[in-house]
Every structure is written in C-alpha cells, then in structure tokens.
Request: fold
Amino acid sequence: MGITLSLGACPAPPSWRKIKPEPKEPVLTEPLTATRTTDHDIQIGERILILLRAILVVLLTTVLGTVGILLCILRPGGSALIPVARLWSRLILKTYGVRFRPVYDPGLDALRPYVYVANHQSQFDIPALVLSMPCDFRIVAKRELLYIPIFGWALWLAGFIFIERTDRDKAIRRLERTLGTIRRGTSVVVFVEGTRSPDGHLLPFKKGGFILAMKAGVPIVPVSIYGGHQVLPKGSLRVRPGTIHVIFGAPISTSEYSPDSPSKEDLIATVRERIATGLQIPPAASGRRG
Reply:
C-alpha cells in the first residue's frame, strides 16, 4: 500500500510556528506483539463489516483513482493528484475510525528538500503520512503496486518511485535516478525497513535511502510512525480504531558522511536511534489532527 505523491509548494504548517500542548496519552505498557484478540475469534457480524469496508475501499480507490488519472493527464507532473490523494487518505481513515496526529520539529523547513526516513508498522501508515507531509514529496513504493489496475496507473502518472525489493543493486540504481527530483526541490520518503514490521519493533534498515541522501547532499529527517501496529498489525484483518502519530524529528546533516565510507554506518545508527526514540515516547503536542 506504499504511496508516492507530488505536492506543490506550500507554506510551513502553522503547527511549526506554534505548537499547542495537549494532555499526554498513556505510554504503551504492553508489548507491541500483544493484541487483545485474534482473527480466529472474529464473529459473523464483524466479518460482514470487514467485507463492507473492503468493498467501500475498492470503490473509493476506483473512483478517486480514475479522477486522479484524468487530472494527471490534463496537468502532467503529479501535483494535480494531491487533493485527490488527501481526500482518499482522509476517507480511508474515517471509514475505519482511525485518526492521525502529526508532530513537527521546529527546525524543519517546509520549502527545503529532505530525504524522510520512516519506519513502517501498518497499512494505515500511508494515509496518515500523506495527510501529515507538509509539502512537495515522493514516496518510494514497491514495484508490485504498479500492476494494480487504476490505482497503480494513477501512482505511475503522479511520478511514483517504484523499486524491486528483491534486487538490492537494482533498487539502489533506481533510487539514484531520483537525484534530479531532489535537486528540483522535491523531498523523497523512504520506508527504511523495506516492509511492514510484523510486531511493531524496528527491523534492520536498508541503506538505499541513506545513500540517496548523501549523494543528493540533503539532510535526513527521521520519521517515527507510532500506533499503526495497534490499529492493524501485519497479517491481521481486524482494524482497531485508534490514533496514528507521525513524528517528524530534527533534520540530520549528511555532509560529513560518504556513501563509500564506513562512516555511513554511524549515520544509519543515529537515524535508527532517533526513530526508536520517537516510537518510545508518545507525543505531548501536535499540529493538526484528523
């Protein structure tokens, strides 16, 4: 369900100027692997609800995907898809009773390109991230999405970055082709684990996003997506209404690191530590919510 979108220039979110404090939410005390129930005990009524919601998602994706295709044909470049993508994301979250809450580091510059490096817990991370991203961006997506009728076509027309996850060298070469995109002022989002975590904990990080940032000479922004595993764990059909937090950390400079140097391991370790910290501390303040 990975998504790559292109947004036009936009001002920094008001939340970066002034962050309103909110009551702290309770820290998750149970292991991320724990769930209250399993899919084995889903009753017939809940199964019908799951089916009806799935049908609605297909209809929304078909209709809005078609609209997005037409807009991208009329206005090439991908930015025309953004209002449609945001509407799709909001409707998907509302369909399942899922909210999103972004938190922005004051040091972020909405008009400057970055490589955003995020963890990935759930399919709902994507719509939450689409609604939280502040400005122009593309998201790296798995190549399989390209072959989904209408949905994949819309992503392709919008300029998505599709990579083959099973071929590391080919994936890195494909990422390097996006250097021009970054130099034109467009940020790139990379799900650094390469797939969804099955238990909510961080998986080993792929190096492609870090190499891309170093070659482009842009900072990395660590993004911690918290709460998705509790909403919909990987492999589950049961969606539990809740809030997904999208925490944008402070930019990390890549100027002192080289793709060909062992020093890049220090950069990877620093970013991993920042993302892990965001996952452990629920946000006490946020910007807009949905």
The chain has one domain: 42-284. Residues 44-74 form the longest helix (31 residues). The two ends are 20 Å apart (CA to CA). Residues 1-37, 282-287 have pLDDT under 50 and may be disordered.
